[in-house]
Design brief:
Elements: E1 2-12, E2 17-27, E3 31-35, H1 42-49, E4 58-65, E5 68-69, H2 75-81, E6 86-90, H3 103-114, H4 119-132, H5 149-160, E7 167-171, H6 179-196, E8 199-204, H7 207-213, E9 216-221, E10 224-230, H8 231-236, H9 241-248
Parallel strand pairs: 3-8, 3-9, 6-7, 7-8
Antiparallel strand pairs: 1-2, 1-4, 4-5, 9-10
Helix pairs in contact: 3-4, 4-5, 5-6
Bound molecules: adenosine-5'-triphosphate (ATP).
Length: about 260
């Protein structure tokens, strides 16, 4: 069953038509990859779904989440959906953290917005979430600048999954990480997805990740989806010359350190 349906989405700036007549469906519990070169409109699609587009951009079309067309919700209604049922993590995880607040304070702010829990219960829930992504309890009291990129991105994931969303939008979550940290973050996402059953809309230009984790793929070029289907179908039998080009230009799969285990560190 479809959990998110985007129908005929157009995103326009004053001078440019960024996303053109885009339709896609994310099924319950699946890992759906949106791939394409830099500038093809992947992030703007994610931003439109989360209703976080810059004010100079306008989105038209329909974005159905259950019975709700997200594009028609008021900002207070969308805030209720965003974060709770529909969570997101972005490549710029540094920008998601306020430098003078501890990780615990970030959790607390988030929990107080969405949950009605005592202070003690909030702390326990946050610590459990940190432990679930392979981090230690002491991270709770630390400031963002005291953590590595991989640790911070894992904190983002633990916060995004805290409220057990139905869908997680992950926009190039490993772009700013080294290859070992990327590998661990993706392994973690895959593990948590299996545990929680949430769907993932995964945005990337790295086909190696797609080959390993995705169920289905949509390929974007110049703001439009040019090909979509089952991962193996698209990667092994691309119908579009551009998809073939993307596959040919992708680094070898052998470069992923498959043998690494665990998510700690
Ligand atoms: N606020 C804005 N106003 C006008 N155009 C914008 C704005 N933000 C982004 N764009 C343009 O939208 C296009 C698509 O950008 P987008 O970030 O979605 O690409 P992308 O496929 O996610 O690329 P990348 O993989 O590099 O993140 C780009 O040409 C970009 O310059």
């Amino acid at each position: 069953m479809s959990i998110l349906s985007v129908r005929q989405l157009d995103i326009m700036g004053k001078q440019n038509h960024i996303v053109k007549d885009l339709s896609l469906d994310v099924q319950e519990g699946e890992w759906f990859a949106l791939v394409g070169q830099s500038g093809s409109g992947k992030s703007m699609t994610a931003m439109a779904i989360c209703q976080l587009l810059a004010p100079n951009l306008q989105a038209k079309g329909e974005i159905w989440y259950g019975e709700k067309n997200l594009l028609t919700l008021s900002s207070s209604e969308i805030r209720k959906v965003r974060g709770k049922r529909l969570a997101y993590i972005f490549q710029d995880y540094q920008g998601s953290f306020t430098p003078f607040l501890t990780i615990g304070q970030h959790f607390d702010e988030y929990q107080r917005t969405h949950l009605n829990l005592s202070k003690k219960a909030r702390r326990q829930q946050a610590v459990d979430a940190l432990i679930s992504v392979g981090l230690n309890e002491d991270i709770y009291g630390r400031y963002p600048f005291q953590l590595s990129g991989g640790q911070l991105q894992r904190v983002s994931i633990s916060m995004a999954l805290l409220l057990e969303p139905d869908i997680l939008i992950a926009d190039e979550p490993t772009t700013a990480l080294d290859s070992v940290s990327s590998f661990k973050v993706l392994q973690l996402l895959s593990k948590l997805q299996k545990e929680t059953g949430c769907a993932i809309l995964f945005i990337t230009h790295d086909l190696r990740h797609v080959r390993k984790y995705a169920d289905r793929i949509a390929v974007m070029k110049d703001g439009a989806i040019i090909e979509t289907g089952d991962k193996n179908q698209v990667l092994n039998h691309p119908q579009h010359a551009y998809t073939n080009e993307l596959i040919q230009s992708s680094p070898s799969l052998r470069r992923i350190p498959f043998k690494l285990e665990g998510v700690s560190g």
